[in-house]
Design brief:
mainly alpha
């Protein structure tokens, strides 16, 4: 689920960058410079990372689409951060509904994918087992 959310963030960033600048990422492009920062968990960003992300988004994300994808990715991470299976189920349902209703075109397929894999994603909370195999299957679906 997290890998799929990260791919979504990167797809939105790439599309927005191409629409704004008319080309793929180059090392001096604002949104290209923050591509790795966008994939870092919010709690792991230091002050420098937060500043870089804010500046990159301000200069390269005029309609906050990259921000929306980043927030969706962080919400996906929240599902895994809770240890309560019931809370995880509620968070996942809200996340799926939010993705399916989103205006950013790359986020809607993320919601459909997560809806398909809902049982497997929530199995992590019920069993404590690794979701590595599920992540691999989602990655290639």
């Amino acid at each position: 689920m997290i890998a799929a959310a990260n791919r979504c963030v990167d797809a939105v960033r790439g599309r927005v960058q191409n629409e704004e600048l008319g080309h793929r990422g180059r090392k001096d492009d604002p949104s290209y410079r923050i591509r790795r920062v966008l994939l870092t968990g919010a709690e792991r960003l230091n002050e420098r990372g937060q500043t870089r992300m804010a500046l990159g988004r301000r200069l390269g994300d005029p309609h906050d689409e990259v921000l929306g994808a980043w927030l969706a990715k962080e919400y996906a991470r929240d599902v895994y951060l809770t240890e309560d299976p019931a809370e995880a189920a509620v968070l996942l349902e809200r996340f799926i509904a939010g993705c399916l209703a989103n205006e950013v075109p790359e986020i809607v397929p993320l919601g459909r994918t997560l809806k398909t894999w809902r049982t497997e994603i929530l199995a992590h909370h019920a069993t404590g087992a690794s979701n590595g195999p599920t992540e691999a299957m989602i990655l290639f679906s």
